[in-house]
Amino acid sequence: MRSVRARAALGATAVVALALAAAGLAVLLVLRANLTGQAGLQAEVAAREVAGQLALNVPYDELRTGDEEDHPVQVTDEDGRVVAVSEDLEAISGTGTDRVTPLPYSSGGGGGGGADDDGDDDDGADGAGPARGEVSTEDPDFANGTATVDGDRADYRFASVEATNEAGVTLTVHAGAPLAAEQRAVASVRGAMLTGLPVVLLVVAGVTWLVTRRALRPVEGIRREMAAITASEDLSRRVPEPGSRDEIARLARTTNETLTALEASVDRQRRFVADASHELRSPIASLRTQLEVGAAHPELLDVPGAVADTVRLQELAAGLLLLARLDAGERPGTARLDLGALVHEEVSQRTGDRIPVTVSVPEGGGFEVTGSRAQLARVLGNLLDNAERHARGAVAVAVRTRGGGVGVEVTDDGDGVPEAERERIFERFVRLDDARTRDEGGAGLGLAIARDVAVRHGGRLTVTGAAGERGARFALWLPDAR
Fold it and tell me: Does some domain include residue 78?
């Protein structure tokens, strides 16, 4: 079953069916218990009425048992022998004995059950027996059974009450009350439930189907639009956002945000490929021209120029490869290194700089960070290259601890960076000086690489104006290794 609507309708119907079945069973049990209790109460009243007569020593054959069809009565003695039954009782079950024929007793007073034939009342006078009979006040015993009265067999609820007559004989009265009303009521309620349950389930299934279809209609709209976007490859399109504030509306907004991020990523990738192709074309074309000229006229071959173009091409390819690895999610190293020592090492290797670099690293160390030595050295090299290109006569590097980390500041006394451009210079292939020739300037990747590496090491790279009237200050911050 692949349809969400069908699964939702089936699930809701199953849950409602179980709930209604449990509720219906509970109603039937409570109804049956109440009606059975009422029948038991009626049986107890009938049994106590007969027991009262026995306590008053009414002869067995003169007992008034009321309506024999509604309340069949059976009286047994201590030995379980039947001593009296109601009129027209033909069969009985559920009272302990199924006998319906009383045993013969003498017709003397006190029910004939144990009275002397001469009618001597001395026992009552000298205290040998009770002065009068009594009916048990204990709760009666109840049982379900059947009885056949005048040819009609039915189910009854029997109550058993004990009574003691004046002769001291304990008798048990079993009186029944019919269960026909209880059975009819339970059957009616059960029939109504069985008839109404399918109707209710059909209504629940239909309503769930309709509500689910209405609720999922925006989802289908989102699916169709996503399919259209996939087919057309037009990432500028967006899925429709419903006006509600539910989960589907949030899904649509998240989908559009994802499309926006995807569109921006694809655009950046396209610009990156285009800019990389453009940047690679220049040194490759220059190198090819020089080699072709050298092949035709060896005396005109510009070997230094060819070497410079080759070095520039090599550096550009290395920068592109590093950006590709960073974009692929390459993790920084976990080695501990001293940033102050790394600054000294990088500056000492820069023998061809046109402007000497002033280094300020406080003694005592404490400048350890965690990361990739090669990538961090690349960051320092890019910052120094940028400063050398723009400085008029001074480049300085300072290392200090700051804010739970280590900070490196590279300053120059050049023209500085306009405040409106201080974020754009960290974008790839961005050069603010359009008049600068490609041979004199870089490809616009150095600062972009520096910031990407800094961010992936948990740090940051920003640019501000220098302390004087001119120049720029690039501030690199990395978390302390501790």
Answer: yes
Torsion angle of the four alpha carbons 100, 104, 109, 115, in this order, in degrees rounded to the nearest 10? -120
Q: How many structural domains does the chain have?
A: 3
For residue range 371-430, what is the model confidence (pLDDT) as tens digits? 999 899 999 999 999 999 889 889 999 999 888 899 999 999 988 888 888 898 888 877
Q: Are residues 55 and 136 in the same domain?
A: yes
Asked if 162 and 128 sit in the same domain, the reply is yes
Domain endpoint, select from 279, 295, 330: 330
- Mean pLDDT, the chain, rounded, equals 84
Q: Are residues 44 and 54 in the same domain?
A: yes
Kindly report the backbone phi and psi dihedral angles of residue 436, in degrees, each rounded to the nearest multiple of 5, phi listed first.
-70, 135
In percent, the amount of the chain with pLDDT more than 70 equals 90
In terms of pTM, does the model score above 0.70? no
Region of poorest pLDDT, from 1-5, 165-169, 317-321, 463-467: 1-5
Which residue shows structure tokens 């069916």? 17
Q: Is the pLDDT of residue 133 over 70?
A: yes
Cβ 379 vs Cβ 476: under 8 Å: yes
Range of the domain at 305: 235-330
**Per-residue pLDDT reduced to its tens digit, 159-203:** 999 999 888 889 999 999 999 988 999 999 999 999 999 999 999
Q: Are residues 314 and 404 in the same domain?
A: no
**Residue 320 counted as domain residue:** yes
The answer to whether position 150 is within a domain reads yes
Which contacts qualify for 413-416: CB closer than 8 Å, 24 or more apart?
Answer: 413/466, 413/468, 413/470, 413/471, 414/387, 414/390, 414/470, 414/471, 414/472, 415/390, 415/470, 415/471, 416/465, 416/466, 416/470, 416/471, 416/472
Side chain identity at residue 224, one-letter code = R
Question: How big is the chain, counted in residues?
Answer: 482
Q: Are residues 148 and 55 in the same domain?
A: yes
- Cα 190 off chain centre by: 38
Residue 131 scores a pLDDT above 80: no
CATH number of domain containing 401: 3.30.565.10
| Average pLDDT, integer, range 201-226 | 88
Give the three-state DSSP class for 304. helix
Within this chain, do residues 165 and 42 fall inside the same structural domain, yes or no? yes
Beta strands, E only, 165-299 = 170-178
The answer as to whether 388 is a domain residue is yes
Domain boundary among 330, 345, 378: 330
In terms of Cα–Cα distance, which of 142, 30, 58, 53 is closest to 94?
142
In the block, residue with structure tokens 């020739």: 437
Give me Rg for the CA atoms of the chain.
53
Token look-up 């004046």 returns 166
